[in-house]
Specification:
The protein is of the alpha+beta class and 86 residues long. 21% of the residues lie in helices and 35% in strands.
């Protein structure tokens, strides 16, 4: 399905800086917002876990899972022959 985008969902067992849940575009992006001690492991460890929708990471401080956002198809960026000459 073309109109789906992978996201990484982090759900904390205890809120971190008031945040209980956050969505990211990649594992690396998680660590631009949170430090290793917030997550309970390193970026390298998460990469080694090979997180998939069927294989989430369950840690002491949080759960990290891969899911998708379903998007509506658009015509943006498509150039066709249906342009009018006004």
């Amino acid at each position: 399905m073309k109109n789906m985008t992978k996201v990484i969902k982090v759900t904390f067992k205890e809120p971190v800086d008031g945040c209980k849940e956050a969505l990211f575009g990649s594992i690396a992006a998680i660590f631009t917002t949170f430090k290793d001690h917030h997550i309970g492991c390193s970026k390298q460890h998460l990469w080694n876990c090979k997180i998939t929708p069927e294989n989430p990471y369950h840690g002491e401080k949080c759960t990290i899972e891969e899911t998708v956002i379903i998007r509506k198809p658009t015509n943006r960026g498509k150039h066709g022959n249906n342009e009018s000459n006004l």
